[in-house]
Write a structure and sequence with these properties.
Rossmann fold, six-stranded parallel β-sheet, 6 strands, about 10% strand, binds nicotinate mononucleotide, binds 5,6-dimethylbenzimidazole, Nict_dMeBzImd_PRibTrfase_bact, cobalamin biosynthesis, glycosyltransferase, transferase
């Protein structure tokens, strides 16, 4: 684990091709299950299994605070990060409810919350108590960004060692749409105006202020777009770096990854810049209402599974999409072939 980026194998194209042919022997017109068929082929290639499994999924929610919250860029105060972590521990947040529906192993990791947390129920892997205010100074040092990536990798390793067969990373961090927007503008060159959005509910003058803060931070921090670690350190967040690390470790272990919303996708894009071999392992759960998500998805050439106008984070959109992955694997494992079911496909044109 000394190298921040593990080595990631290419998907097994022979296995994917075999499964593509097998799908055409199942009792349905070829291709009629559309993107579900493409998902089955993808999952086979990633896992190297003709009958891939994705259960149980592992959900890891990384929590951290952002110094830039003091610029008034969120509709909620910084203390809400820790309060929501307590809610995760108590089992009352949306991610708890949805994770229970899919039988997920749910872990909450403190990689950088700025205040005290309840004694039990979370993994303590805090790199520092929140980032510095990126509008005034670098959010963190390069070493701290590396430490947060390593914390994310440890979490993915725990999920894999606990038997999880699909990884979902979620996040909780007041003001993290500001950090993510700044990173995305630097990563893609897209104008801030095109990607800045309400986050937890900024509108009107408040949203215009958020945009100004991001534009000024980009000008002052002067990140090197060709150096993803520099971007993470100057503009990022501890939970964003941890998610990037978790994705890289999961892919190194050949676990399919279901990506959540805006912040999770910026983390995924950053991780792909660190190691492009990650890209095939990413399946995109949903399109967030946050406008920057469109920009991030386009940069990755990604088409998400769901579009439900969600903008919560925590991993919720990915967890809601998980049953589609399950359906794709069940289709392969349980559907009858034309031959076995006695359905005649010999005259099909
Ligand atoms: O995942 C998303 O697409 C998403 C979009 C908007 C907001 N959020 C969540 O809201 C918080 C960040 O919003 P803000 O306004 O504080 O920057 C953070 O905890 C995220 O989990 C998440
Ligand atoms: C209540 C609340 C819950 C959240 N979950 C993820 N981000 C959040 C932000 C707020 C404000």
């Amino acid at each position: 684990m000394n190298d921040p980026v593990p080595s990631i194998a290419l998907p097994d194209s022979a296995c994917a091709e075999r499964v593509g042919h097998y799908l055409d022997t199942l009792t349905k017109p070829p291709g009629s299950l559309g993107r579900l068929e493409a998902l089955a082929v993808t999952l086979a290639g990633l896992t190297g299994e003709d009958f891939p499994g994705v259960t149980p999924p592992g959900v890891v929610v990384f929590a951290a605070d952002h110094g830039v919250a003091e610029e008034g860029v969120s509709a909620f105060p910084q203390a809400v990060t820790a309060q929501m972590v307590a809610n995760f521990v108590a089992g009352g947040a949306a991610i708890n409810v949805f994770s229970r529906r899919i039988g997920a192993r749910l872990e909450v990791v403190d990689v950088g919350v700025a205040s005290e947390l309840p004694p039990g129920g979370i993994v303590r892997d805090r790199v520092r108590p929140g980032t510095a205010n990126l509008a005034r100074e670098d959010a963190m040092s390069r070493d701290e960004a590396l430490a947060a990536i390593a914390a994310g990798r440890r979490a993915a390793r725990r999920a894999a060692e606990a038997g999880c067969r699909c990884l979902i990373a979620g996040e909780m961090g007041i003001a993290n749409t500001t950090a993510s927007s700044a990173m995305l503008a630097a990563l893609t060159g897209a104008p801030v105006a095109e990607l800045v959005g309400p986050g937890t509910g900024m509108a009107g003058e408040a949203l215009a202020h958020k945009r100004t803060v991001i534009e000024a931070a980009l000008a002052e921090r002067g990140p090197d777009p060709a150096d993803p670690l520099d971007l993470l350190a100057r503009l990022g967040g501890l939970e964003i770096a941890a998610m990037a690390g978790a994705y890289l470790e999961a892919a190194a272990r050949r676990l399919p990854i279901l990506v959540d919303g805006f912040i999770a996708t910026v983390a995924a894009l950053t991780a792909c810049r660190l190691e492009p071999a990650l890209r095939p392992y990413l399946i995109f759960g949903h399109r967030s209402h946050e406008p920057g998500h469109r920009v991030a998805l386009e940069a990755l050439g990604a088409e998400p599974l769901l579009d439900l106008d969600l903008r919560l984070g925590e991993g919720t959109g990915a967890v809601l999409a998980f049953p589609l992955l399950e359906a794709a694997t069940a289709m392969l494992a349980e559907m009858a072939t034309f031959g076995a079911a006695g359905v005649d496909d010999s005259q099909a044109s």
